[in-house]
Amino acid sequence: MNRVLRTNKNSKSVQQQPGTIGEIAVSPWSRRKFLANSTGLAIAGALGGFASQPLASAATGDFSFRVVAAANMKARIGKASGTNTKASGISTAAAQSSTPPTSYSKPRRIIIDTDPGIDDMMAIFLALRSPELKVEAITPVCGNVPLEYTLQNALHLLEVADRTDVPVAAGASHPLVRRLVTSAHVHGANGLGGVDFPKPKIKPVPATAPELIRRLVRESPGEITIVAIGPLTNVALALRSDPDLAAMIPAIAIMGGSLSGGNITPAAEFNLYVDPEAARIVFDAQIPLTMVGLDVTRKVLLQEHHIEELEAAKNPVSQTAGKVMRATFERMSHGGEVHVLAMHDPLTIASLIVPDVITLKDYYVEVETLGEWTAGQTLGYDGHAPVRKSPPMETSAPGPAAQEEAFKANAKVASTVDPDKFFQLLIPRLTGNPA
User: Fold this and answer.
1) Per the domain annotation, does 238 fall within a domain?
2) Of these residues, 174, 187, 306, 344, which one is catalytic?
């Protein structure tokens, strides 16, 4: 790690001093060891704008619903909680499954971690207008635009949807160890297509996003799914500051990554490019993870007739969505080149409501963090070959050759999608007109 984030406010230059971050010396660990180490955690937490103040540990409660992929994690849960799957009525096969439940007798409880964002707006509206889901909180993070905008956008969208009961907590203002890269050229300077909206009247809660995530999950272990449709900084900070938290999260669904090329670079999808170190923490957390990436989201394309349907419906949600999408189309058309917009984030929400809108396949996914040109790239192994790292450089210190690792899936990756089914859900939910 030879990045240094010490900057002079009056200068755009960055002082490069290998081996330090600011005034803190960094030992010669690998990036993964750094991120997993408590010292690395403290540095990352400070850089993310949050103090690492763990919440009180929950020593009681039935944690047997926790679904964890690794055997050693399950053993730790059993020891910590004093429960067992047989006694609680949950089968061993269910406890060992890496697939989150796909049907619920009551609304599925979710936290939406997001960087609104035009498609984030559509995702938030879809979630709020879907009885299959219960949105417990929205935790904005920097990404598509800076935090000052994503936070205000989240509050405004809740007011539009008449859901001011949902708490909003401000998240990270910049990635763990990198400078922030935004996508205002797509989402507009304010994140909502450049459309001016009144300043929201409601305020965020005093807690930070990682604190709110930790509190809600600990209050209801095994019940709250994290839906992360922006950079994964907030989620990573919550996991790193509370080592037991991963065992209490039944599933994470992310919009991010790609096994077929990127959209911000040829290699990387935007959300993972913005904070690849945070993404690696999340993928390494051994929480059942669903990756809804560019492989499928690039195939769900909002078109002119969809915008017309949104504009025609006379409710605040559809009117706001139509106004933002119309402005985005007009701004990005540049003489007529852009006729569609990919609905990345709403597809992730839709997959929780109608699971068969996508098909999933087991992969072992690694997030590239060291590449000069490939940071944020997701590499997927599907079991047809061992997991191999690059061979050591001949000039490196003596040591064994790179070892091969047996395939072991750490994610369900969306491989195909039904666009018609997606839009048959999205547009009627936002317009209030049943299909």
Assistant:
1) yes
2) 344
